Amino acid sequence: MKHNFGAGPCILPKDVFAEASQAVLDFNGTGLSILEISHRSKEFEAVIAEAESLVRELLEVPAGYSILFLQGGASQQFAMVPFNLLPTYGRAAYLDTGTWSSKALKEAKNFGAIDVVASSSDRNYSYIPKSYAVPADAAYLHYTSNNTIFGTEIFDLPQADVPLVSDMSSDIFSRVVNVADHGLIYAGAQKNMGPAGVTLVVVKDELLGKTGRTIPSIFDYQQHAKADSMYNTPPVFSIYVSVLNLRWLKAKGGVSVMEQENIIKARQLYEEIDRNPFFRGTAEVEDRSRMNVTFVMTNPALEEEFLALAKERGMVGLKGHRSVGGFRASIYNALGISSINALTDLMREFEEAHN
Amino acid sequence: MKHNFGAGPCILPKDVFAEASQAVLDFNGTGLSILEISHRSKEFEAVIAEAESLVRELLEVPAGYSILFLQGGASQQFAMVPFNLLPTYGRAAYLDTGTWSSKALKEAKNFGAIDVVASSSDRNYSYIPKSYAVPADAAYLHYTSNNTIFGTEIFDLPQADVPLVSDMSSDIFSRVVNVADHGLIYAGAQKNMGPAGVTLVVVKDELLGKTGRTIPSIFDYQQHAKADSMYNTPPVFSIYVSVLNLRWLKAKGGVSVMEQENIIKARQLYEEIDRNPFFRGTAEVEDRSRMNVTFVMTNPALEEEFLALAKERGMVGLKGHRSVGGFRASIYNALGISSINALTDLMREFEEAHN
């Protein structure tokens, strides 16, 4: 058995893989593969309608918000957000908490003036800045809710009198979020929503159409909203597998139940990191991510050995990102407590063997 | 058995479905699903390298061209092409042969002046305009090589002294094309390349970086080329299934062998349409598409009956697009001659039953 600690595209439930595999052969008894059905067929229209309805239910999306399934990943949203929300000659505020927020604000500079209200780059993004002022004339404040690379997460909503825009790619569906506090939320699917190839956007309709800018149709949220995410051929399979995964999440009890499990999983791993003298966490304790647990060894010379042992036990994806080094255990929704046990057991065994 | 005549997403070979289904459970014996592997893993790097190499081999792409796997469909290329190739204050030429070329030129107008060199809209796009002048100062001439909706195809390369840009979404890999005659070719995958969710772009490098415009990274071909289509997380599964399909095409003997099969398939169907007094083709004979065969009944009142009979025999996707009416048989690479036989047999039986 494999324990997939990869940062993404990442583990999804085994049952989802089994159902997806079957649908590639025969989708819902149609005699056709999910890969060869028309996106205009009544079968696929039911899939995309269910995708929207599951997102609306699981995230408790209020009225007045559109739910879109787009392509291009979160990186495309780095451009589409300012394209659609930042007025010509306007300004927007960005909170810089890591590689992805840096990229987001860099792309936004193509569309207007950008205020970086705070940055944690001074200490290799190991913490979340807490106090900063957001200009009242900013079109929005953009923040990255979870920093996949650096293992930090924002648990207290940024305070601002302007609409909040959040890249939730790596923690959406992992904890309860109040959508109504946000103007726009986006997320690449490939962590807790589904496979790579589809991007979720939840946007407050009243914010759209106000930039004074002509937006090419394919980059215009209003066009996608009007067409119910079928402005052009959508990524059929990625949306279908997302539906399978969101059904699984709903059957588990939804986001709040998942959040409790994720708290327990993260606590067990961080407790071992803090207890075990061979290991050390890299993020500030209060800002530690529940999705991506970053840690190093107090003696870096032992890291290769530990990784090799982990591999022997079927653990994959544990190597840390080069920006942080050491290890990163991504412990998304579908990763069971047995995988956490396998890792903490190995950490204890390693300690005993080397003491 | 189903005969899938759908216009796209469309039929792919059964063996491709079988292999794709297996990879969703266990990719190449890794113990992991293709849906949960990292796009930075050596396993996926081999997949995307093979995708590029198969495209290069099958289309005989010369040196000096980049091969990109992007997201967003051909519709996103309607904007990305002028974003990247149409200089600020420049102009581009478009040949208008149907719904998709109309959409392409409409989006291009966001980026510069557009000359529509010719249009067949006067006769519901039932033919390909043959004589027109292309302004010498156009940055490029854009044409749609096959018009999926109207059932026409361009067999003689447009004559122009400017770079050719072609949307080949619905006939790429179905016939031999001289890439060197083009500055850029793009194609949504979901006909003859693979499932929906990935878009192929083949672009001559020397045309890039000359617009004088700042392009957001995600829309910049040069960024994608520099990153070997891994600027951000690619649509892993769609690329993988495209590789399976292109391997199948290569094993069949490649594009020229496929072209011969497609000529035979199309000829058999058009011959029956022309012979059978109950049916009538909608496109000019010399411009008839080998991929999308559009036809109506001489007595339209019988169309519902014919469609119902076809459905009884397992034929799906035959209903014509509302812009043309009647029927559209999409006969892409993976559709075997047995499906053509099933359709022409039914047409003959229908004739006999109604005579």
The CATH superfamily title of the largest domain in chain A: Type I PLP-dependent aspartate aminotransferase-like (Major domain)
How many distinct domains of chain A?
2
CATH architectural grouping of the largest domain in chain A: 3-Layer(aba) Sandwich
The largest sheet of chain A is: 7 strands, mixed
User: How many helical elements of chain A?
Assistant: 9
Query: What is the CATH top level name of the largest domain in chain A?
Result: Alpha Beta
Task: Give the averaged pLDDT of chain A, no decimals.
Answer: 97
Helix proportion range of chain A: 25-40%
- Beta content of chain A: 15-25%
Output the helix-strand order of chain A: EHHEHEHEEEEEEEHHHEEHEEH
Question: What oligomeric state best describes the polypeptide chains here?
Answer: homodimer
Number of strands of chain A: 14
Task: Describe the strand arrangement of the main beta sheet of chain A, using strand numbers.
Answer: 2-10-9-8-5-3-4
C-alpha end-to-end distance of chain A: 29 Å
Based on helices, strands and strand pairing, what is the structural class of chain A?
Answer: alpha/beta
Which overall shape of chain A is indicated by the principal axes computed on the Cα atoms?
globular
Unreliable segments of 5+ consecutive residues of chain A: none
Largest interface: A-B, 62 and 62 residues
Radius of gyration of chain A: 21 Å
Examine the coordinates and then state which fold CATH places here, giving the name of the CATH topology of the largest domain in chain A: Aspartate Aminotransferase, domain 2
Function (chains A, B): Catalyzes the reversible conversion of 3-phosphohydroxypyruvate to phosphoserine and of 3-hydroxy-2-oxo-4-phosphonooxybutanoate to phosphohydroxythreonine.
Subcellular location (chains A, B): Cytoplasm
Main location (chains A, B): cytoplasm
GO molecular function, one term (chains A, B): pyridoxal phosphate binding
